[in-house]
Each structure stands twice: as structure tokens, then as C-alpha cells.
Write a structure and sequence with these properties.
The complex is a heterodimer of chains A (263) and B (296). Chain A is an all-alpha fold and 263 residues long. Helix content of chain A is 74%, strand content 0%. Classes of the chains: A mainly alpha (263), B mainly alpha (296). Chains A and B meet through helix 1, helix 3, helix 4, helix 5 and helix 6 of A and helix 1, helix 2, helix 4, helix 5 and helix 6 of B.
Chain lengths: 263, 296
């Protein structure tokens, strides 16, 4: 590859692409510290918008809702996804249909799943709220946990299972005391990934949360703030939300030491 | 004859009785909250809209026919155009970036790739909002133009189709870089050298040797951006302003404002069909390209 590449041209390409990727984000971070709060003129460094953020009860309420949704859906998805991963990897025959069902939540467009779930809950007369958001988030979260755990199981040495069985351990004990400890880093990596996905997810929450003010999640709040009047607090909020998901995902990657999610 | 079975397979057999029991909770969840709702959408497309916005359970093909009404067919075409344009631009930039990363010194590649993908991990809404800040009349780009001494009237940038395309390219570029980097990094450097030794110059080597061998990455990147863009409703809603409609926004309106669920379902059905078709095509293409010899 290097033999055909012109080093100066390559450097130019990289500089341009990284500028394109990072300038908008950097501007947002810088503006979150702008005293005047306007995007045009820099009037001095201040953290007052971060203070304003924490005093805004709408934003804090939405943040709490998001946390509730993310925590509960992550716990459920981690249990279901891990069991699924072990089950699928133990099976010797790989069913194409099964693979499609497990893979689908990761590639199905959000809007399609969102309207499908909205129709489903409405036709069954289920009242919409945070609980319906949680039920819906588990769908894609469990698929991501499953794929992370499965990647780890591909290199799993199944002979330790044989050893455990030979020594008389019942299946449940083998899974709990032998298989799970080996997979633990992948399970935690999967859970962190699920947590971030849920934290950032907007479209499905938007459709399945219903109209009530008390079931608004943080991304819904951000969408409303962007669309109906931007206030300076949003820059601070954006900076926090962005940093949070990047930090959690970097942690997840470190634990997993594998490829990127979805790869 | 169990001694002939490799120990690994044998161990798997011992626990083979239980996999269904392990998989059932998750599969039940996916069936209840994904398969059934999606099937419901398909069924919904063939019912009539009720007088008060509900659903009248009488069979009809009207909703399907309405999708082909010029008014809506145009929105489909327009969305496909925007998605195609965004995917093309993203692939050109993403491939160039991936190529530059693959050509960098081996010990720097992982770090460069990490920073290329990092923005992808942050909130989609926030990344889109960043472009409102960049493109608005008093935004950074306008400011930079003024600072450079341009004081004429700048063209409107925010709330245009261009803004939507920029937003889509920006949001999905990291994925394209990742998809293109994979085949580029696997290329055997000796192949390029062989092409050189046989008299091909740099450009010929790239066009005739490297490019054809990395088509699967390009296809994956293109299909991904196209599929996510054509059904997108956040980016057109935020960067395209209220007036600009893509299929995603149309579907959204049928469900949340116009209350015509059967028509919304019919629109989604076509959207799903387009996406599934493309994804199947892409899977088929990459399976063919990677060859049948590779087994897991």
C-alpha cells in the first residue's frame, strides 16, 4: 500500500478528514464555555451554562428518566443476550433463520421498529410510558449484548466444560462457575455498549414513550430543545452527553479488546 | 465411536440438550416485540383508515396504490436521490481516508482508526446539532467567510438539501472509513509491488489492482449509508427545516400527526422492501467476493 501512496497527499487527506470530523464537535465544546451564550461572539470563559443545566428541572427530569430506562433495559438485555449467546454457540447446527432473527434488531431501521412497536402497543391498548420504552430498548440491546458475547465465545475452550462435567458438576453449575467467569469481560463490555445505546437512543423512545411530559427521555428533550428554540444550555448538555457516551464506549472497547461493535 | 470425535465437539454435545432452554427467553422477547409488531405493520397496510383516524378492518389495496401517487412517489425518489448522493460522497471521502490510514506507518494505524471512529460513538442528535451551529447565518462558516474579508450576501446554508446531505455524510462517515479500511488493511503489499514490477504506474496499480480488490468494503459502506439515510427522519427534520420531506418524515407524519396508520404502514412496507433488497444484495456481493473457500 505504501508503495503506491504519495505521503504528502496522504497527509493532506487525513488532515482534511479529521478537520471535517472534529471541527463541528470542537466548536460545540468551546461554545459551551462561552459566557455570552451566543454562537457568534466569544465574550469570555464561563461555566455558568453548566450550572444553569443542573438547575433546569425539565432537563434533570429527562436525565433521570433516561437513566431509569437505560439501567433497567441494560440489566434485562444483558441477562437475555448472554443466555442467547451461550445457547446459540452450543448448538452445532447454525440455522439461517435463527441468525436472521438475532441479527435483525441491529440492522432494522429505527423508524421501522419504532412505528411497529407503536402500532403494536396501541392496538393492544397498552398505555404508553417509560415501561414501553424499556420493553422496546431491550429488543436491540439484547442483540448487541449477544453479538459481543458470541465473539468472545468463538475462542472459548469448550474442553473446560467437558472437564467440569466429568467431575460431576451439573449443567447449571458449569455454566455459572466455569463458562460465565471466562466470558465476564465480554458480558460487561456488552452491557456497557447496551447502556450507551439506550442512553442515546431517540427515535424508538420518541414513538413509544407516549405524549406525557413525565415520560420524556434526555434525547427527546434535546430534540425538542433543538427544534423549538435553542437555548445556550444545550451546548453544555451536548458536551456532557457526548463525553459520557464516548467514555463508556471506550471502556467497553478496552474490556472487550476485540473489534468495534457491529463489526 | 465417540473417541473419534474431537474433544471440543464432544464437550459441546454434553451440554447440547439445553440450548433451547437458554435461548427461549431472548427469542420469546424478540418474537413478541419485534417479529409480531413488524408483521402487524405488514397487515395494517391492507386495511382501511377509520373515519376518526382509527383502523377499519376491511381489506383494501388503496394504501398501496396511494404510495404510487405522483405526490408520494416523488418523495420516494427524492429520498433515494438524497440517500444516493450522501452515500456516494461518504464513500469517496471515506475510501480516501481509509486508504491514507492504511498507508500510514503500521504502528500509527490503530490510533488513526480509533480517532476516525470516535465521533460515531457520540449522540446522533448532538452531532447533527453541531451542524446547525456551523451552518446558521451567524455560525462558524459565515463568521470565517466574514473574517476572510467576504462581505457579500452568503447563500442560505442551513435548512437546505445541501445541509441534509452534509449532515448525513458527517454522521455516517466513520462507518464508511471502518468498512473500507478492513479490505485495504488485508491487502498483500506484494500485490502492489508485483503490479509495479510489471510496469503499472501508481494510478494504474490503484485502479486495476487495489480498487477491484476492495469493492466489498465500498459496497458495505455505500449500502449502509444509503439504507440509514433513506429512512432517516432526524436529519431532514433538524437540518432540512420543517418544509423538507423525506420518507422518514412522511411515515412519521402518518403515525403521529395525520393519524393515517394504514397509509403509514404501506409506506414503511416499501421502505423495508428497499432496504432488505439492498442489504441482501450487499451480503450476496460480499459473500461472493470473499470466496467460498473461507470457513468459520
Amino acid at each position: 500500500m505504501r508503495s503506491v501512496a504519495n505521503p504528502r497527499l496522504m497527509l493532506m487527506v487525513l488532515s482534511a478528514v479529521f478537520a471535517f470530523l472534529y471541527i463541528p464537535i470542537s466548536v460545540l465544546f468551546a461554545l459551551s464555555f462561552n459566557e455570552g451564550g451566543l454562537p457568534t461572539a466569544w465574550t469570555g470563559f464561563s461555566v455558568k451554562w453548566y450550572g444553569a443545566l443542573f438547575r433546569n428541572s425539565d432537563i434533570m427530569g429527562a436525565a433521570l428518566n433516561t437513566l431509569v430506562v437505560a439501567v433497567i433495559s441494560t440489566i434485562l438485555a444483558t441477562i437475555l443476550g448472554t443466555l442467547l449467546a451461550v445457547g446459540v454457540e452450543i448448538r452445532r447446527r447454525k440455522g439461517r433463520f435463527l441468525e436472521t432473527i438475532i441479527f435483525a434488531p441491529m440492522i432494522i431501521p429505527d423508524i421501522v421498529l419504532a412505528i411497529a412497536l407503536l402500532s403494536f402497543f396501541s392496538l393492544l391498548n397498552v398505555t404508553l410510558g417509560l415501561h414501553t420504552v424499556i420493553l422496546s430498548h431491550v429488543v436491540f440491546n439484547l442483540a448487541f449484548v449477544c453479538s459481543v458475547v458470541r465473539a468472545r465465545l468463538k475462542t472459548f475452550d469448550w474442553s473446560v466444560v467437558e472437564a467440569s462435567t466429568d467431575l460431576g458438576a451439573p449443567m447449571v453449575v458449569t455454566l455459572w462457575r466455569v463458562v460465565l467467569p471466562v466470558m465476564m469481560p465480554a458480558v460487561i463490555a456488552g452491557a456497557l455498549l447496551a447502556f450507551t445505546l439506550s442512553l442515546d437512543e431517540f427515535i424508538i423512545a420518541f414513538f413509544t414513550a407516549g405524549a406525557g411530559r413525565d415520560s420524556i427521555t434526555l434525547p427527546m428533550q434535546i430534540f425538542a430543545m433543538i427544534r423549538f428554540g435553542v437555548t445556550p444550555e444545550i451546548n453544555a448538555l451536548a458536551a456532557i452527553v457526548m463525553t459520557l457516551s464516548v467514555v463508556i464506549l471506550a471502556l467497553s472497547q478496552r474490556l472487550n479488546r476485540g473489534g468495534l461493535p457491529g463489526q | 465411536m465417540h473417541w473419534r470425535i474431537a474433544p471440543q465437539i464432544q464437550a459441546r454435545r454434553m451440554i447440547d440438550r439445553k440450548p433451547l432452554y437458554l435461548m427461549t427467553p431472548a427469542l420469546a422477547w424478540l418474537t413478541a416485540f419485534m417479529v409480531v409488531p413488524c408483521l402487524m405493520i405488514l397487515a395494517l397496510a391492507f386495511f382501511q383508515r377509520g373515519i376518526y383516524g382509527g383502523i377499519d378492518y376491511t381489506f383494501t389495496l388503496e394504501n398501496i396504490a396511494l404510495v404510487f401517487d405522483p405526490l408520494y412517489a416523488n418523495i420516494f425518489l427524492k429520498s433515494a436521490f438524497i440517500a444516493g448522493l450522501s452515500a456516494t460522497i461518504a464513500v469517496v471521502i471515506g475510501y480516501a481516508a481509509a486508504f491514507a490510514i492504511a498507508a500510514a506507518p503500521a504502528n500509527r494505524q490503530a490510533m488513526l482508526l480509533f480517532f476516525a471512529v470516535l465521533p460515531f460513538w457520540s449522540n446522533y442528535l448532538v452531532r447533527t446539532y453541531a451542524w446547525i451551529v456551523m451552518l446558521n447565518r451567524e455560525g462558524l462558516i459565515a463568521g470565517a467567510a466574514q473574517w476572510l474579508g467576504y462581505d457579500g450576501e452568503l447563500p442560505k446554508m442551513l435548512y437546505t438539501e445541501t445541509a441534509v446531505v452534509i449532515g448525513l455524510v458527517y454522521n455516517y462517515l466513520p462507518f464508511v472509513i471502518l468498512a473500507c479500511y478492513a479490505p485495504l488493511s488485508r491487502l498483500n503489499p506484494e500485490i502492489a509491488e508485483a503490479s509495479r514490477d510489471l510496469g503499472g504506474n501508481g494510478w494504474t496499480t490503484f485502479r486495476r489492482v487495489i480498487l477491484p480488490m476492495t469493492v466489498p468494503g465500498i459496497a458495505t459502506g455505500f449500502v449502509f449509508v444509503f439504507v440509514l439515510s433513506i429512512g432517516n427522519f432526524v436529519t431532514p427534520a433538524l437540518l432540512g427545516g420543517g418544509q423538507f420531506q423525506m420518507i422518514g418524515n412522511l411515515v412519521y407524519a402518518q403515525f403521529l400527526t395525520a393519524n393515517d396508520w394504514p397509509f403509514g404502514a404501506a409506506l414503511s412496507m416499501f421502505l423495508i422492501a428497499i432496504m432488505m433488497g439492498l442489504l441482501t444484495l450487499q451480503t450476496y456481493a460480499s459473500e461472493r467476493a470473499s470466496g467460498a473457500g473461507r470457513e468459520e
